[in-house]
Design goal:
Elements lengths: L5 E4 L10 H11 L6 H15 L5 H16 L4 H15 L5 H12 L3 E9 H10 L4 E9 L5 E6 L4 H15 L7 E4 L5 H6 L2 E5 L3 H8 L2 H6 L1 E6 L2 E5 L8
Parallel strand pairs: 1-2, 1-5, 2-3, 5-6, 6-7
Antiparallel strand pairs: 3-4, 7-8
Helix pairs in contact: 1-3, 1-4, 2-3, 4-6
Length: 243
């Protein structure tokens, strides 16, 4: 059987320009499913610190995840499913031009296009559907027997989880990883880059850049992409200066 070429896409910060989980949390507050104290006192300060470039993006997302787990515990999955659909309907076009065009190109080539994201799987499902992707993996927030969230989580935001997902998908679709592609922006995407022949770091974080520059094998094949305003830049990792 002929092997297939795949394209693995992270979502938050890679396709979508911010963090989708934040949009879900705002809707939860708007619909009075939880008190807005959580947003005002815990999440918003971390968001504003990052938004002003005074804080770390990963720290902000970790805080967001912790509060999200607590916020949805006991809620029925119906509410989150509905909110996820609403968020993607309203915000799903706020994506990077480069990433949108790459998804389109991969689909035109007949490649298997897959989302592997740390966002809640309800969101990843809707985003994958919107952009015509073939499959998806996301963070699973477990349910009780009555359909309410239990507070238990199976993460998909870390390198180890994404490594496991890629190997599972490789077997499922008979993927030729050496000729496949991966797109990501944080250190959680590092193993995706290591596994494929054509990795693309999109607006990478400082931590991810550090890992890339320390890995000689990855330095040889990485594509560094930065999109600002209406211009997309491809950077040379060997001449890159982080200041």
């Amino acid at each position: 059987m002929e092997k297939k070429i795949a394209a693995f896409f992270d979502i938050d910060g890679t396709i979508y320009r911010e963090g989708l989980i934040t949009e879900v949390f705002k809707k939860i507050v708007k619909y009075d499913l939880v008190s807005d104290d959580k947003w005002i006192n815990e999440v918003r300060p971390a968001f504003e610190k990052w938004d002003k470039r005074q804080g770390d993006y990963d720290d902000y997302l970790i805080k967001m995840v912790d509060i999200y787990i607590e916020a949805i515990k006991g809620l029925n999955h119906y509410h989150i499913d509905h909110i996820a659909k609403t968020v993607i309907e309203q915000k799903g076009d706020r994506v990077y031009t480069f990433s949108r065009e790459r998804i389109k190109w991969h689909l035109e080539q007949g490649h298997v296009v897959i989302a592997i994201s740390g966002s809640p799987i309800e969101l990843v499902k809707e985003m994958a559907k919107k952009y015509g992707m073939d499959d998806y993996r996301g963070t699973i927030y477990k349910l009780n027997e009555d359909g309410t969230y239990s507070g238990e989580v199976i993460p998909m935001w870390d390198s180890e989880s994404k490594q496991k997902a890629i190997l599972e998908l490789q077997e499922k679709y008979n993927i030729d990883l050496e000729n496949s592609y991966a797109y990501g922006d944080t250190s959680g995407d590092f193993t995706m880059f290591k596994n494929v022949g054509n990795p693309h770091a999109i607006n990478p974080t400082r931590e991810l850049l550090g890992k890339i520059t320390e890995d000689e094998e990855l330095k040889e094949k990485i594509n560094l992409i930065v999109e600002r305003k209406d211009v997309t830049y491809k950077l040379n990792v060997d001449s890159l200066q982080v200041i």
